[in-house]
Amino acid sequence: MNDVKRMKNLVEISEIVTGSDNFFEIKDLVINKMLKVVHPTKACVNLFYNKDYNYSHLVCSATLDYIPKLFPKNEEYGSKIDFSLYPKYIHEAVFEKKIVIVKNLFEDERAVGEEEMAKKEDYVGRVVLPFVINNETVGFMTCYLQKEDELDQKDIDFMSQVASLMSLSISTTKKNKDINKLINKLRNSISNINKGSRMLYSTKDIYYYMKKMSCVIAETTNSEYAMINVYNIDDSGKIVGQKVGIACPEDSINGINAIMPQITNSKSMFGIANNCEINIGEKKIKHYMFTKVVIDSSSELVVFCGGNSEYNTDDENTMSILSKQIKNSIINYEYYLSEERYKEIENDLSMLKRQQRLIMNSTSDIDVFSDNKMYFYHRPSRLVGGDFYNAIDLGDKIVFIVADVMGHGIVSNYIVAIIKGAFEILSRHIDNPGEILKQINDYLYNEFDKMGIYATTIVGVFDKNNLKLSIANAGHYFPIIISNDNTIINDQEGERGLPIGIMEKVSYKSIDYNLSDVKEICFFTDGILEMKDSEGKEFGIEELTAFLLDNSKNNKEKTLSNVKEKIMDFAEDKEKLDDILLVFIKNKDEI
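RESULT FIELD:
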């Protein structure tokens, strides 16, 4: 019977632990459930923070009577206690990472000095179970034994399993806390970089900006030193001179510059060196990290930070994100600084435009059903846009995506590229458009969250044999569909899912359309709807629908020509137009 009870409670404790990401919310509940099975009626939990074994933090003492009065709560979760006050057998359990059982502390020399407290708390022995994570003791649980208490091996095994589950909960809580702390720190850092960028545009003082940014890098990565260098590079990518270099603290610049050659000569674009020893002036550091980012064809950004704390993958990701933000600020600064510099940046952005055209132009005309083909019209707002379309012909079916990434420029172009990569992989293995959207969101959510960006998206699957279209919508406009008798299906009030990048673990529904009586379908982004005429009136859904009806009998060349002409005639300010993307499925041979 006891075996059944132990197993039942262990299952319940497992469900509690796996169902929560906060150890401090469940610790008392877990202790109480454990004590319902084993003989001890009292237990407590102590934790060590940041590998500091000088102090033990009593975070769970709800079942005790005297000890909480002896050590009153002096911090958020409990009491901070000098660990040297604890008896030797607890030190033994912690540092040797093993379960220690003291049946009678009045007869055990390892418990000398504990007798008075034991009498007042009414116990004669203790079981100490350490919490071990990655071979490090992060805390321990103590079960208090009274005179009549007896423990067999099954009881000890049960308590050991509970201790393992509590270790798992502590680990999960720490990881979540570290992640949230990192995200908040990163967001604050990006906010500071954005503030610095605005100040840079107003003051045109690149040295002041880089001084501030080097301090942001040092603070965010918990580094003692940081330096930002911009180097001139030749056509082969070789460094031929330094444009500007700023360090934090400022007096460390010569010391850091002395070790820069080994970094700049490295072929790696990123590196972490832990447990080394280098000199920065008269001081030594044990760890450093660097990243290189190509700004344009003639310059490269090198960011360095160093100190006496080890760097990890989180630090690598943080430095990469911040370096890209700094790179973008430098590019925009030089863009506004002079016309000559503007032309150099325009050349680099033109490369991104060619990259985007390659992404879009990889989708040639595709036969869909009957005599209908799928093709598109695309006009980016600037050199680089955030609207995106791709279609893949898989024989009996065609899988396609239409997306509108929030924002423009380099960031949106980067997001377009990673969406395309994810879509091309998933579309070959998943038939359901809703599942494709879900997987894209799951795979890319962290990237979107880091960038503070999202994308409205439609994914569709054409079944050529059954003349059926299935689509899933992530916050996008629904298509306009024209039947053979010119009836319009324009379901803009239909249920749309959340845009991708807004929230994790989102599900998307698939909607089916019968194409047997359809002569034209048009997918679009909001750029065509939001363009304004000389009176400030938007083009809108009704005008777009009327345009599609007027051009329903035109072939591809005529339709695309008329789209371009309509935009030029309607839009008052061509320079302020948003990205415009129209994807058509219509008869290829109409006049």
